Amino acid sequence: CARSEGYYAISRKEKDVYLDLDLPEQVIREVENVDSSGANRVLSERRSEQRRLLTVIGTTAVMDSDLLKLNQLKFRKKRLRFGRSRIHEWGLFAMEPIAADEMVIEYVGQNIRQMVADNREKRYAQQGIGSSYLFRVDHDTIIDATKCGNLARFINHCCTPNCYAKVITIESQKKIVIYSKQPIAVNEEITYDYKFPLEENKIPCLCGTENCRGTLN
């Protein structure tokens, strides 16, 4: 409807058509010149404002902020794909070169408490879901990407990984983001160290690297 349209300026010449005013041709030309110069002035001011904003964003302090990096990740997503992995079932692979110390992907899922995570883990086992994607954020917050996650849940563990996970805080909300430790080539698998706590029931590690620890926990 008309109410949903944005505001836009109407030139004096167009207004006069609706007002049925007969103005001399010279006056009309003068009005058009004024409108044109005014529009150019507005555009010039907007360009100046944009340059000032870019200058501020270009400062080291702002460029290093987690908020800006996360916004860059959202607007300039890395090209990734999932496929069969030599480590374990499915994995995540780079479809473009990734430089060192870049945000690769955010680990997305549902934020739940420890008690809820324990109940879900038991329910997933009863339902025959072999893998649950529970990522601990802090002492009582866990991200569950089992059913509501993105491609980050396919990233496999490796004892000598090319990425690492980092918890960042954006507007009082904690997020998990995967960063690259080193340059990553096209079709190279994305991996990071799960850093599971030590337990008696060992989970075998299948990364196959020279420095493999043998178990995930």
UniProtKB/TrEMBL annotation:
Its main location: nucleus. Transmembrane segments: none annotated. Gene3D superfamilies: SET domain (2.170.270.10). Residues 78-195 form the SET domain. It is found in: Nucleus. Residues 201-217 form the Post-SET domain. It comes from the Eukaryota. InterPro entries: COMPASS_Set1_N-SET, Post-SET_dom, Set1-like, SET_dom, SET_dom_sf, SET_SETD1A/B. Keywords: Chromatin regulator, Methyltransferase, Nucleus, RNA-binding, S-adenosyl-L-methionine, Transcription, Transcription regulation, Transferase. This is Histone-lysine N-methyltransferase setd1a. The lineage of its organism: Eukaryota, Metazoa, Chordata, Craniata, Vertebrata.
